[in-house]
């Protein structure tokens, strides 16, 4: 019995000695793989996209002073959004797309353009993520990248509104309506409601300008969007 145990131990010792030799041989012959450049066009494209994706997330972080990773996708924002029903993608999913680097899906969606900036989402967020501000930044980035905006009339409304602020320093409804109609060529849309609004004093014929219009213009000059900085 003792003899058999001794033989077994000896055999084990021999085996482990052989295994050790084999391992050393393998280690000596091992050539570590050298990192190679991406082989296919798809890999090239993915690498380029990943770089671009990160930069878009960074740009949004810089514009909003909040990290997109703060959102942990609880969905409370979308549950309270009054225009969620009309959006292609839920507001929290736009954040998720940016987090994942799927920037084309995020920027091409109509969601940022349908966002009314009501701040419901921002006030409901348990992690204090300002989703309304995030949506603003997504729209801005989309314009900078030259993304074709599906909701053209909404973009025209934004432009018409900002033109009034730029020229008068505050909103001028008649100018806004005229500007919007010229941009969209929807000349007769809602035209029947104008007389009633004039009678009730909701529309004033002449604009009320702020005193320091020059400062307002300077703000516009400093903050104007530089198009196609890095196209998609
Ligand atoms: S409520 Fe806040 S944390 Fe939750 S999904 Fe919306 S943005 Fe993200
Ligand atoms: S700010 Fe925009 S995304 Fe947020 S609840 Fe309002 S409409 Fe929805």
Can you describe what's shown?
This protein is mainly α and 232 residues long. The protein has 2 domains: 44-144, Fumarate Reductase Iron-sulfur Protein, Chain B, domain 2, CATH 1.10.1060; 152-223, no CATH class. Helix content is 61%, strand content 0%. The protein is built from 12 helices and no strands. Helix 2 (41-64) crosses helix 8 (131-144), helix 9 packs antiparallel against helix 10 and helix 9 crosses helix 12. The N and C termini lie far apart (78 Å). One iron/sulfur cluster binds next to helix 3 and helix 4.
What topology does this entry show?
Blueprint: H1 2-29, H2 41-64, H3 76-80, H4 91-100, H5 103-108, H6 111-114, H7 120-124, H8 131-144, H9 152-168, H10 173-184, H11 194-199, H12 213-223
Helix pairs in contact: 2-8, 9-10, 9-12
């Amino acid at each position: 019995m003792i003899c058999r145990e001794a033989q077994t131990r000896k055999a084990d010792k021999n085996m482990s000695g052989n295994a050790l030799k084999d391992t050393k041989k393998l280690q000596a012959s091992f050539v570590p793989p050298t990192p190679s450049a991406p082989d296919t066009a798809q890999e090239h494209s993915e690498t380029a996209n990943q770089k671009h994706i990160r930069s878009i997330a960074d740009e949004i972080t810089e514009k909003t002073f909040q990290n997109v990773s703060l959102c942990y996708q609880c969905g409370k924002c979308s549950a309270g959004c009054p225009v969620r029903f009309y959006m292609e993608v839920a507001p929290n999913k736009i954040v998720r797309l940016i987090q994942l680097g799927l920037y084309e899906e995020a920027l091409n969606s109509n969601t940022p353009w349908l966002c009314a900036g009501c701040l419901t989402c921002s006030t409901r967020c348990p992690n204090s993520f300002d989703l309304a501000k995030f949506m603003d930044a997504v729209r801005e980035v989309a314009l900078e990248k030259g993304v074709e905006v599906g909701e053209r009339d909404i973009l025209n409304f934004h432009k018409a509104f900002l033109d009034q602020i730029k020229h008068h320093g505050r909103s001028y409804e008649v100018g806004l309506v005229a500007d919007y109609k010229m941009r969209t060529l929807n000349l007769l849309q809602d035209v029947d409601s104008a007389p009633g609004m004039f009678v009730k004093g909701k529309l004033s014929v002449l604009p009320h300008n702020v005193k320091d219009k020059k400062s307002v213009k300077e703000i516009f000059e400093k903050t104007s969007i530089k198009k196609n900085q890095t196209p998609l």
